[in-house]
Amino acid sequence: VSINYPFILIIALFLGIALVYSLAVKRRNIFISLIPFVSVVVLFVVMISFYNGTGKGKIDVTYVNVNTSSDMLVLTDNVGNAIICDVGNGSNTSYYKALDVMYDARAVDVRAIVLTKYLNYHNSSLQMMFTKEKVHELWLPYPKNEDDLGIMKMLVSKAETYGVKVFIYEDGDALSLFENTNMRINNYSIDRSVKPISTVCIITDKEVLTYCSSAYNECDGISEIERRLRNSNFIIFGDSGPNLKTPYTVPENDRTEYIVFSNETRASYYESSGMDGIEYRVVPDWCRISLDE
Questions:
Q1: Which residue in 203, 150, 161 sits closest to 180, CA to CA?
Q2: 158 falls in which pLDDT band (50, 70, 90)?
């Protein structure tokens, strides 16, 4: 239970009143003295059951834009669990942004951290997460070269130190992190940059959200990515990966409800024909989207 539950302060107030009552009023019958405390417990159970029940059947996906080269996705299940996809750029800013998003969504337990790629600054980001939060699992991509392998070994060693279970996944694997929700991650190469183009698909039984690096139209997997975008209810074009150099359009799809940009510049790269009938939002910092399970 976290103090981020707004009703916790109310419960604490009632508990204080019950304590004062029990000290000030002496009763011969002990059961009468227990009535205020029993009432507080019943009130607490009812309120937390109602509060959690209102979010059942939904997965919240929060896009967090740390800076122009670091994005995060924070998944929360409305019953206290969080999954963090990528962990920022190693700064305190990215760490605290991830925590702010978690707490705002009433999540207090980091069920898993999932990395889409290997970057040196992930070492310091994970150090902060492991030392300050209870993290249960770390999911790492299969290394594609010697540099990736070196970083992977370092992260695995760090995770073992803190008792975090490590799992290795291949591109396109269905990562079952919540009961009715899968995550699929793919990375593609681009000629002009060593940074890969990443796509992250969050798939529930009813809806699909796709995060995509914005320069996807230059990568070797453009046809696969466009197919995923056409099958998505929500699309997020983020700042991770190479900078955008050429215009692109949204594949036509009547199902798409939102297209989220990370900064004002994104909108100018769209051709007007690609925006017909599509609602989009400019997001400077973070944006939360709820998916039906």
A1: 203
A2: very high
The pLDDT of residue 269 is 44
Instruction: Record the tokens describing residue 159, joined without a space.
Output: 């995770």
Sequence-ordered alpha helix ranges (H) in the chain: 8-24, 30-53, 92-104, 122-132, 146-161, 222-230, 265-268
Higher pLDDT among residues 276 and 103, named by residue: 103
77 burial type by CB count under 10 A (0-12 exposed, 13-18 middle, 19+ buried): buried
Q: What is the rounded CA–CA span in Å between residue 140 and residue 112?
A: 11
Asked if 102 and 173 count as a contact pair (C-beta separation under 8 A), the reply is no
Taking the CB of residue 123, how many other CB atoms lie within 10 A of it? Answer: 15
CB neighbourhood size of 79 (10 A): 14
Q: What are phi and psi of 215, to 5 degrees?
A: -90, 30
**Local confidence band at 80 (pLDDT 50, 70, 90 cut-offs):** confident
Is the pLDDT reported for residue 68 higher than 60? no
Task: Say how far apart CA 43 and CA 35 lie, in whole Å.
Answer: 12
pLDDT higher at 90 or 266: 90
CA dist 145 and 288 (Å) reads: 35
CA pair distance 245, 214, nearest whole angstrom = 9
List the structure tokens of 267.
Answer: 């909108």
Convert the pLDDT of each residue in 21-45 to its tens digit.
Answer: 666 665 555 666 666 667 767 776 6
Number of H helices and E strands in the chain, helices first, is 7, 14
pLDDT band at 268 (very low <50, low <70, confident <90, very high): very low
